Amino acid sequence: FSALSHIQFEDRPRMLWIDAICIDQDNINERNHQVESMGEIYSNCQKAVIWLGVKDNQTESVVDFIKSTFEEIEQKVTARPQYRDWADLTWLYNSHIEEHIIEELFRPELLAGWRCFGLVLQRTWWTRAWIVQEFANAPDATFHIGEFSIDWALISALITVFFWGVHRGRLSSVLSSIAFSNLANELLFTRLARQHEKSTENSAVSKQSPLQAGLRFMMLLNGQSFRKCRDPRDKIYSILSLADASVSKALPPDYSKSARWTHVAAVRTYINISKKLDIMGCSTVEPPANYPSWCPDWNMEPRS
């Protein structure tokens, strides 16, 4: 309700797809069908509208900080003219930002702004399982905090620099910064990889071997272990649109099955496609009593 109150247009209608409302959650057949179509829905939308929550007394200043710091990043990291599309952001993500530039971007008078940005990354949206495919598949996205909106490219550039800053000890005093910057960084990586894949869909580059397809699926599964959802089956179903077609074909959404069946089926799918058993190395120390010993509980953080 809060999101709808803020993101509606005042002068014209706005059409939105909100899966929690647009899908009958009590109808298993409808859920199966719609979840299977989710990748197509988000890939063909105009824009993903990302609601981070209501504003607080720091929101206006942190939005100003994001915009001004983004401009400074564009000026100081000069190998690319700007970072407003996925290709330029991929370059920034993969570049080794020089130490003197990191020092300038994390100079003492900016640390308060970076800490506030760290709090933005600690909002609950970043921890949700379903957001990964939504953010990765959408051709464009805008973040909203209260009445403030920020383009995804600005947030993405700051996530990249923030990640560098945290891991070089520039923000060691920020509680949980590393954990939350890792979540945001992983999400950004998934989006950049997905957008690159879309640009090469008709080329030989996009063809994945069974081993590559399996490893990608396991990487996505491990990433979901750190995220939250009400239904443990969603840890699997929420990433199918990002996995190789061989995975989604072998493991269609089926909410008539139990969480145990779904998690076991995910492991079997990986083994059948990749012809490898290394997914067993992801098992938690003590799996749930009703799980096979070789099946990871994707609701717990992976060991490796």
How does this structure look, described?
The protein contains 15 helices and three strands. It has helices at 2-7, 19-22, 28-36, 38-43, 59-76, 86-94, 99-105, 111-120, 131-137, 152-167, 177-199, 210-224, 234-237, 245-250, 259-274, and strands spanning 48-53, 141-145, 148-151. A three-stranded mixed beta sheet has the order 1-2-3. Strand 2 and strand 3 (148-151) form a beta hairpin. The radius of gyration is 20 Å and the shape is globular. The model has no long low-confidence stretch (mean pLDDT 87).
Secondary-structure map:
Layout: H1 2-7, H2 19-22, H3 28-36, H4 38-43, E1 48-53, H5 59-76, H6 86-94, H7 99-105, H8 111-120, H9 131-137, E2 141-145, E3 148-151, H10 152-167, H11 177-199, H12 210-224, H13 234-237, H14 245-250, H15 259-274
Helix pairs in contact: 5-8, 5-10, 6-10, 6-11, 9-11, 10-11, 12-15
Major pleated sheet: 3 strands, mixed
Which blocks of ≥5 consecutive residues have pLDDT under 50?
Answer: none
- How many separate helices? 15
Label the structural class. Answer: mainly alpha
Which shape, going by the Cα principal axes? globular
Strand portion: under 5%
Rg value = 20 Å
Distance between the termini: 40 Å
Strand order of the largest sheet: 1-2-3
Order of helices and strands: HHHHEHHHHHEEHHHHHH
Average of the residue pLDDT scores: 87
Counting DSSP E segments of at least 2 residues, the number of strands comes to: 3
* Helix content bin: 40-55%
